[in-house]
Specification:
about 500 residues; Fic-like fold; six-stranded antiparallel beta sheet; two-stranded antiparallel ribbon; 15 helices; 8 strands; elongated
């Protein structure tokens, strides 16, 4: 496989993520009121720790289960924790702590670097590689005879020998030859600077990350530098560093491989989702300020939030509830059509002398006395997806019930996302079976999400854009729910 020269940016219209644009808009409106309180500072500190830990795990510089990472995020990077919970010697734990602290210094430095508005340069990128490898003296290399050896690691300078990895099928993946590396890095910087004003940050981050990885200019540290560069793009837009977790590894590598053959969309989509998740977590802090340890800061920031909240145009935020009513109607129509079709088919296969199989649907809008149904299921599904389901201001749901020799329910619920009136709502979907109790009546069992992710929407995104995204989400959810129903018939 021959090396392919880096290609320019794709057409900016080829990648549209209105959900992220709208969320970023909401975040920028609220950021100034949040960034000086203790809860937000703690959030950023933990995000930086997670970035520092995970960027090394992805490169297999060390490895452990997610539980160890979560303890280090909460308590700080300590060799004693790494040794005890990670199952390594104290000496190795101290070395790992030094590596993670190098990573931590880098991500903290990125937050400072963006304030200077200095343009991206080769000098800066070489400096990143040197920082990443401060406590790394050697790297591994494959000899012509196929033996793995350790060689001294060159820092702050481009490679002088080929660094093409061997794929599992035996073929070599061609990175940039050493003699072309400086020229390609100059092209990378030039093309990036030319596109800074015309492309969305997730597109720039994905392009820069992939093209840099394609060149692979250093002996080692290329993956870590690539993720730092992508993070820098987002930070300059007032967003968050790109955290790629070990659990993301398969999707991440797959997206990079798609980019290798000319399709950048999976990598752009992956980056957009990670930013979306970070923004949603940050927005959820607005009502969590009281958890901060700094009492004076809490009072000050809470007063600022109250001022901002009452000065905000309520009509603007309330648009999201109008969107929710329209999406609710969309689900109601779709479920009614599905129930009519299924009801006819189910009745036709009912065994003789048995109560007819059937399908039916019902619903409750935000004004209905039955809007409170499914509270336990909604909260449990929200916990699985890691968010707070706010059931105070808005609650509505649509259900379809499939009755055979059992009752199978599929529900789509609309409710608030995070505490308070944030202007962000969520839709979740789930299925369950009604099991008969010995003492009479029934209870829901075998609760399953009927979606791979929640659907969030907000006041800053147009209804047309929201409806288009929701239609795709709903059709995917229906397919998942029906597959779960079929599976339940076999058990």
């Amino acid at each position: 496989m021959n090396y392919q020269r880096i290609s320019p940016f794709p057409n900016p219209q080829a990648f549209e993520f209105p959900e992220l644009r709208a969320l970023a808009s909401v975040w920028h409106e609220k950021k100034s009121a949040l960034e000086n309180n203790g809860a937000y500072k703690e959030f950023i500190k933990k995000l930086q720790r997670e970035w520092a830990i995970e960027t090394g795990i992805i490169e297999r510089l060390y490895t452990w289960d997610r539980g160890v990472t979560e303890v280090l995020i909460e308590q700080g990077i300590e060799s004693s924790i790494i040794s005890h919970r990670g199952g390594v010697s104290q000496k190795d734990a101290e070395h790992i702590q030094a590596i993670i602290n190098d990573h931590l210094n880098i991500v903290e430095g990125l937050f400072s670097y963006i304030k200077g508005e200095e343009p991206l340069s080769e000098y800066f990128i070489r400096g990143l590689q040197a920082q990443f490898t401060t406590h790394q003296e050697y790297t591994e290399a494959l000899t012509e005879t196929g033996h793995m050896v350790q060689i001294s690691l060159r820092k702050d300078e481009y490679k002088s020998l080929p660094n093409n990895p061997r794929r599992p099928d035996g073929d070599a993946h061609a990175y940039c030859p050493p003699e072309l590396t400086k020229e390609e890095m100059e092209n990378l910087i030039r093309l990036y600077r030319e596109a800074e004003s015309s492309h969305a940050p997730e597109v720039r981050a994905a392009w820069l990350h992939h093209r840099f990885t394609q060149i692979h200019p250093f002996q080692d540290g290329n993956g870590r530098v690539a993720r730092a560069l992508a993070s820098l793009v987002f930070l300059r837009e007032g967003l968050f560093p790109l955290v790629v977790r070990d659990s993301d590894r398969q999707k991440y590598i797959g997206a990079l491989e798609s980019a290798d053959v000319g399709d950048l969309l999976p990598l752009v989509s992956f980056f957009a989702r990670r930013q979306r998740d970070a923004i949603l977590k940050a927005l959820g802090l607005e009502q969590q300020v009281q958890q901060s340890r700094y009492a004076d800061e809490i009072i000050s920031s809470a007063l600022d939030l109250l001022k901002a909240r009452f000065s905000q145009e309520k009509q603007t935020v309330s648009v999201v509830y109008e969107h929710a009513e329209k999406l609710f109607a969309m689900v109601s129509v779709r479920f009614e059509s599905l129930a009519v079709s299924l009801d006819n088919q189910l009745r036709s296969v009912t065994p003789p002398q048995q109560r007819p199989y059937r399908a039916r649907t019902n619903s409750a809008n935000n004004k209905s006395p039955h809007r409170h149904y499914f509270q336990r299921q909604i909260i449990e599904i929200a916990e699985r997806f890691g968010y707070y389901a706010n059931l105070e201001r808005h609650r509505s749901w649509v259900r379809i019930t499939l009755t055979t020799d059992q009752e199978f329910d599929y529900v789509v619920s609309f409710h608030g996302y995070a505490p308070g009136d944030t202007g962000i709502l969520a839709a979740s979907a789930f299925t369950y079976i009604k099991a008969v109790r010995e003492e009479g009546g029934n209870e829901p069992v075998t609760l399953h999400p009927a979606t791979t992710d929640i659907f969030q929407f907000n006041y800053a995104e147009s209804y047309e854009s929201t409806a288009k995204r929701f239609d795709e989400w709903l059709e995917s959810s229906i397919a998942i729910a029906l597959a779960e129903w079929r599976k339940s018939l076999q058990s």
